[in-house]
Amino acid sequence: MRVSDSKAVSGPREDRERRRDTDKRTSIPTFYRQVVAELRKVVWPTQEQLVTYFFVVMVFVLVMIALVSALDLGFGKLVFWMFGGGGTQ
Q: Which stretches are transmembrane (predicted)?
């Protein structure tokens, strides 16, 4: 079955009608109820999981700090070596 071009693509009138439905604003109480309903669906971590996640994140951050510091120190020494940063007068 072949669809004509006029049926396959929505025109400006259909776009306006579709936009009208999505442009309506939600009232503040409705928004609040929806937020509370979504927060009830959240699976909150236990205290044990939270402590574990905290230490995992801290170890990762410390490793990244060490890596960036080592690269900074290494590139700094390389630049001073290449351009003679310890000049004598």
A: 50-71
